[in-house]
Amino acid sequence: MLKINNMEAGYGKIMIVRDLDLVIESKEIVSIIGRNGIGKSTLVKSIIGLVPINKGELIYNSKAVTNKKAHERAWEGMGYVPQGHQVFPMLTVEENLRMGKLINKKSGNLDFEIIYNYFPKLFERRKQKAGTLSGGEQAALSLGRALVGNPELLILDEPTEGIQPNLVQEIGEIIKQINKDLGITVLLVEQHIGLIQAISQRCYAMDKGKIAQEIQGDDIKNYDLLKEYLAV
Ligand SMILES: Nc1ncnc2c1ncn2[C@@H]1O[C@H](COP(=O)(O)OP(=O)(O)OP(=O)(O)O)[C@@H](O)[C@H]1O
């Protein structure tokens, strides 16, 4: 579904991601791990078109999208859950979900009912301003807003950041469920080792802007190996 060849991306003249290769097959759940500031968000932003790709190639569904704009990539089925959730604070829960419906032109939209089934709290709070929700509820709303666009590839940047430990597992279960029920491919940037181990089929460890190691099979259960790429 997604193939990155020898990619370089960054800000102005400063390249953060360098010589990066990565492959994601359809219906996989793949995680990206790495220390703070190593370039994980820059990588996912370059995939969705928010950071320009300076060199290399980004292939999505067998087509080069390297030079396509962010909204065109969204229309093609890329969904994004940004770091820090970034809900629209002055809009209600339902209005936030409606914003998500504007995104994916290719495969139609999902009904709010499906989202509310995954997140019953969002239904209860559908008339409430998003800025007044708890961190966990904002994480759910950000995920729901991306889902209503019916993405084929869902890219999540640290969806569990700043939320209570008991909700981390719940978010993980829902990600696994949507992958299974809706056939959505998932690329997850995450620092929470338990969550990575619980839901990922493969994992790419980043170091100095490159992929340092691909971790798969039983190695994903190796806590010390994952920790090596996350420890400061
Ligand atoms: N808009 C920007 N302009 C210039 N430099 C930036 C910009 N955004 C990020 N950077 C720099 O790029 C580097 C990588 O940042 P990035 O956010 O991609 O890392 P990260 O691995 O996602 O970190 P974290 O885990 O803390 O979110 C950092 O040195 C950061 O300061």
TrEMBL record:
Statement: the UniProt record of this protein carries the keyword Cell cycle: no
SUPFAM superfamilies (alphabetical): P-loop containing nucleoside triphosphate hydrolases
Cited InterPro entries: AAA+_ATPase (IPR003593), ABC_transporter-like_ATP-bd (IPR003439), ABC_transporter-like_CS (IPR017871), BCAA_Transport_ATP-bd_LivF (IPR052156), P-loop_NTPase (IPR027417)
GO MF, one example: ATP binding
SMART domains named in the record: AAA
CDD domains assigned: ABC_TM1139_LivF_branched
Family named by the database record: Belongs to the ABC transporter superfamily.
Keywords annotated in UniProt: Amino-acid transport, ATP-binding, Nucleotide-binding, Transport
Keyword tRNA processing: no
Stored Gene3D superfamilies: P-loop containing nucleotide triphosphate hydrolases (3.40.50.300)
Name of the featured protein: ABC transporter ATP-binding protein
Residue intervals of the ABC transporter domain: 2-230
